[in-house]
Structures are given as C-alpha cells and as structure tokens.
Design goal:
single chain; binds thiamine diphosphate; alpha/beta
C-alpha cells in the first residue's frame, strides 16, 4: 500500500469518528455554510490528486504533482473574489476549486481532469501542459517555470494604481481589487522571485500604490509581503 493510500484511509477513519484537531468552531466572518464549502473544496482537491495517480497508472494521465498540504488555500479563495486576480502556485488547485464556486457555470474539477489527460478540450492549455488557470475566474495560467509568475503579479498590481491615476479606455481590474500571488518556499531562491520582491519593496518605498499580497507556502500559507 502506498503512503497516499495510508493517509487517505486515516483521513476517512478520523472524519467518520469526528476525531478532529482541537480548534474553535467557525466564527467571525466565517459562517458555517462557508466553512463547509471550504471543506468540500479541500476534499475535492484531494480527490483530484488521487484520481491523477489512478489515471497515470492506467496510462490515461500524465501529471501527478498534487495539492496535498495546500488544501487550506480554499479558505484564501473564500476571503477573496474573482475580481482579485490570482497568480497561483501549481499546488493550489484548492484555491481554483473554491473560487469556481463563486461564479455560476464553472467546471474547474472537470477542466483539471481534462488537463491531467492532456486533452485538447482542456480550456486553459488546450492539452499542452497541466496548468491551473481560468479566464472567467481571473486566474492567469502559469507555466511550470517556478517564480515566473511573481513579476507578472507585481506588474498586474502596479497596473491597478496606474489605472487609477491615468484611467484607460478599458479596465480589466477594478479600482478596489487586489492581486494575490502564491508560490513554493524553495521558489524564493530564484532570482526571478528576488526581482519581484525588490520591485514591490522599491515601489512601496516610493509610495506608489501596489495592492499585492504574496503568500509563500510552507506548511501553512504565510503572508510574506503586503503592500499598500
Ligand atoms: C526556473 C525553474 N527552475 C527549476 C525548475 C524545476 N523545478 C520544478 S519544481 C521545483 C521545486 C520547487 O519547490 P517549491 O517552490 O518549494 O515548490 P513545491 O513544489 O515544493 O511546493 C523545481 C526546482 C522549474 N520548474 N523552473
């Protein structure tokens, strides 16, 4: 039996027994219905991870990099809206799944299965590569080049303030939107990430508005940088 199966069996056993870590019941702005929706997104994300492995074993899937350990990203999605552009780490399927519940007519789980299979019907990559992303959900697709999305996130956040100062004819992002960006902890070592941090901090030092939230993902999402 593989480790993923052992973890899954333990999960089922503990949920059935109501054997949860000590914690407070949902409170504050988190109502019980939203808490359940977040839990559902986390479970669906885990199910997609497991399905990707089964597809690979059957010769039907070609991507198994999972989102295990990042299921909590569903809560971040619930705290934001599709108006807030999101540049996601490749392990943040839970974010996209939860966000897809905020807009009618979305089929994110199915789209991800198409992506695992490199299907030409995959709406975001056309079968070229498994990527998270959705135009309707304001999640630009990312390549697997780690940290390459950080400068793009900084630029997108910069554009919000710029559009306030010099309104363009057509705006994609609302004046009060923020840009969210998540990435793996090892990606911090990449010069592309360092360039993005430096630009964000220099922009902040210059008092130029930059509505950006960066999340470095270790075991739990940790806010790394907040501007504006
Ligand atoms: C520019 C670039 N260099 C190297 C790689 C190969 N690579 C893929 S994943 C990865 C590790 C990323 O670690 P981390 O950012 O912590 O993310 P994790 O997968 O651990 O969540 C590396 C080096 C890559 N995809 N892109």
């Amino acid at each position: 039996m593989d480790r993923a199966q052992i973890v899954h069996d333990n999960f089922l056993r503990r949920v059935a027994a109501g054997d949860f870590p000590a914690g407070r019941p949902p409170g504050g702005p988190l109502d019980p219905a939203t808490a359940v929706a977040i839990f559902r997104s986390a479970c669906l994300t885990r199910a997609l991870d497991r399905r990707s492995r089964k597809m690979q074993a059957a010769g039907q899937g070609f991507y198994t990099i999972g989102s295990s350990g990042h299921e909590g990203m569903a809560a971040l999605a619930a705290a934001l809206t599709p108006r807030d552009m999101a540049f996601l780490h490749y392990r943040d399927a839970a974010f996209q799944i939860q966000r897809s519940a905020q807009l009618p007519g979305q089929t994110s789980a199915w789209d991800m299965l198409l992506s695992f299979a490199c299907s030409s019907d995959d709406p975001i990559s056309g079968g070229r590569h498994k990527v998270l992303g959705s135009k309707a959900l304001n999640i630009p697709p990312q390549t697997s080049t780690i940290a390459s999305h950080l400068p793009k996130a900084v630029g997108a956040a910069y554009s919000i303030g710029l559009a306030r100062r010099a309104p363009p004819e057509f705006k994609v992002l609302a004046d009060d939107a923020i840009v969210m960006c998540s990435f793996g902890d090892a990606s911090v070592n990449h010069s592309t990430a360092q360039g993005a941090f430096n630009t964000a901090q220099w922009t902040s030092y210059q008092s130029v508005p930059l509505p950006l939230r960066l999340y470095r993902l270790v075991w739990e999402a940790q806010p790394l940088f907040e501007a504006e």
